[in-house]
Amino acid sequence: MDWGINLKYKAQPKKPKSVKLILWRYFTLIALLVSTVISLLSISIVNYSTYLMTRDKLASISSELNGVIGMQNNVAQQDNLSTLIYRLENNNSVEIYILDIDGAILFGRDEQLENKHLNTNLQKMKQSGNPVMYRENADYYYLSSVIYQKQECSTLVVFHYSFYSQTQQTFVRCVLIVTALILLISLIISYLLAQKLSDPLKSMAQTADEMAKGNYEVSFASAEYEEVSHLSDSLNYAKEEIKKSEQFQRELLANVSHDLKTPLTMIKAYASMIQEISGDNKAKRDQHLQVIIDESDRLAGLVNDVLNVSKISSNIDQINKKVFNLTDLLYGILNKFNYLQDTQNYHIYVDIDADLYTYGDAEKLSQVIYNLISNAVNYTGEDKNIYIQLKDDVANKRIHFTARDTGKGISKDHLPYIWDRYYRVQEEHERPVKGTGLGLHIVKTILQKHGFDYGVKSKQGEGSTFWIDFPEVESVVPTI
Ligand code: ADP
User: Fold this and answer.
1) Which of 10, 193, 290, 330 has the fewest Cβ atoms surrounding its Cβ within 10 A?
2) Range with the lowest mean pLDDT among 189-193, 312-316, 330-334, 346-350?
């Protein structure tokens, strides 16, 4: 069986619809709904008011008629009644009948009435004692009781609806035309509105595509709507950050390759010297071997920094906290810098309180302190003096650490950025400990993971003081 064939029919992900189309569709639906409701409402209002008007009109005709009938109850006055009925019929476009108790016509223009509901409504009228109005075949009928020729009778006023219905039809036609017009206008307006709302998003998508191709010079255009403008601001910020990070990474690669090259060249050169010149001269050979060892240490330090940053950034490195002697840890680190005092005239002045204990990851905090002392060594002034303090702040249950140098200091412009990854103030000068622009980023990450306070005070021309506040804890009594 060829399973591969099935792949052809693999379900394709549904293509998302455009915002413009969706908005336009919803706007149109709302416009349709609103105009339908309005037209239905106006037609019902017209119908109902027609009904009320007809009822009032028929009631007034009927009461006028009944009044006259009530007063003219002898045959001699029949002529007067006929004239009134004739007048009422002509003036009001109605037909008038006088019916006996069973609904038979006593007076009227037709001999017979084609009216299915007459008897039912006669009963209704008798029972309630009130006039009754009903509708049949689009005509209105108004029944009311009256004494005619000394008998209990009823008058029936018939109103042919055809007259009103024409007016109503014209009205309905008007309503439909207006509705269609409103719908058309709202279709156009909603299309324009949908376009206005979706255009900035479309342009942002195009800009993002451009950016994805590596063009960081693009800028996300803002819009008049708050949300879209917020989005464009965030995207512009993200773009700037990506741009910076790319630039920093490029610089780091250049720096690291440069910093790797120098010790490698030295190692090669000194190894050749041992091979060719100093092979049998122990003193010279040892001297050359020491250079190779020092340069290898620098290389290892550099590679370590790069590895540490990537480990810390990707959270592979967990913090293993324990209580440890910070004083001992600091002396241990300072020992690593002895060679600078012995060989390069550096002076490290220390003021360290004895046996101070803290709680944290000793290995990582040792790296933090090492980085700060290295920086002090790298950036101190001509006097090559460095001042290290570790003081017990009993009142606050803290241990205050400072590493001070006498160098150029850091300008206010650079100060906020020195903790950023790959950040280096571009200055050419010889440094005894090679840096990568990662040291302070490692310091920041580790101290933040511990939740310790830290910072720097620096004034240009007066040097810098980096500080950390460690929590002070009781030493652990060793268990026997
Ligand atoms: P680097 O490897 O370049 O020393 P860091 O992350 O340790 O990287 O420091 C970042 C930048 O901060 C340095 O390039 C330097 O410009 C500045 N900086 C750090 N420590 C000091 C200091 N003690 N005095 C002056 N500038 C410093």
Assistant:
1) 10
2) 312-316
Atom of ligand 1 nearest to the CA of 305: 2
C-alpha distances in Å from residue 26, one per residue of 29, 195, 328:
5, 13, 72
- Best mutation site among 410, 445, 446, 447 for ligand 1, i.e. most ligand atoms within 8 A of its Cβ? 410
- The share of the chain scoring above pLDDT 70, in percent, equals 87
Q: Could you tell me which of 145, 194, 254, 248 has the C-alpha nearest to residue 27?
A: 194
Mutating to test ligand 1, I would choose from 255, 440, 447, 454 the residue with most ligand atoms within 8 A of its C-beta, which is: 440
**Span 241-267, mean pLDDT?**
78
pLDDT tens for 131-151 read 999 988 878 899 999 988 888
What is the residue-wise DSSP string for 143-211?
EEEEEETTEEEEEEEEE-THHHHHHHHHHHHHHHHHHHHHHHHHHHHHHHHHHHHHHHHHHHHHHHHHH
Among 281, 297, 247, 293, residue whose Cα is nearest residue 421: 247
Which atom in ligand 1 lies closest to the alpha carbon of residue 371? 7
**What are the residues whose beta carbons fall under 8 Å from the beta carbon of 289, sequence distance 6 or more?**
270, 274
- Tell how strand 347-352 and strand 385-393 pair up: parallel
- Interval 80-105 mean pLDDT: 87
437 Cα: distance to centroid of ligand 1 (angstroms): 7
Token readout for 239 is 């773009």
**Mutation test residue for ligand 1: of 303, 304, 417, 418, the one with most atoms within 8 Å of CB:** 418
Contact 147, 153 (CB under 8 A): yes
- For residue 462, the CA-to-ligand 1 centroid distance in Å is 15
Q: In a 10 Å sphere around its CB, with 0-12 CB exposed, 13-18 middle and 19+ buried, how is residue 440 labelled?
A: buried
Average pLDDT over all residues of the chain: 84
Mean pLDDT is lowest, of 102-111, 312-321, 323-332, 359-368, for: 312-321
Q: How far is CA 56 from CA 49, 50, 65, 92, in A?
A: 11, 10, 14, 12
Where does the pLDDT of residue 237 fall: very low under 50, low under 70, confident under 90, or very high at 90 and above? very high
CB-defined site of ligand 1, < 6 Å = 371, 375-376, 378-379, 405, 407, 410, 418, 423-425, 435-441, 464
pLDDT in tens, 401-434: 999 999 999 988 888 888 886 666 655 455 555 5
Question: CA angle at residue 63 from 60 to 69, to 5 degrees?
Answer: 145
Of 57, 72, 59, nearest in space to 147 by CA: 72
